[in-house]
Write a structure and sequence with these properties.
146 residues; Glutaredoxin; 7 helices; 18% strand
Amino acid sequence: MPYPEIMIHGMRQELAQLGIEETKTPEQVKEAVENTKGTLMVIVNSVCGCAAGGVRPGIAMALQNDVTPDKAITVFAGADIDATDVARDYFTGYVPSSPSIGILKDGKLVQMFERRDLEGRHPMQIAQALVNAFEEHCAKSETAAN
């Protein structure tokens, strides 16, 4: 049974206020992945304390970086159940966990942050790990810029 929307609304809003697109259906997730040229950050949001205390604040800090993904979407584990399953299908080779963050490039997973990579980390540590991933996978090459 999904979490009641009234319980998770504020947690959803933390990411939506950053400009991260909420994808609540499998179709919305597939459309975002298939129609994003370049890099896409896929966030599996969660009600857990590590999402509130570290992950969402860390994402907010990381998105202040000059280099960021071309697009970012989120699903909510325990609420957007079918959409979360589809998002996790793109995380090939990783067991489902929440919260988690995948960086896809042209629809292929290039970087994965599982719960074990996020839990117990300070928001600054999460932000730095994300910024490192952004710099590695999202930076536009000089030839592409010209």
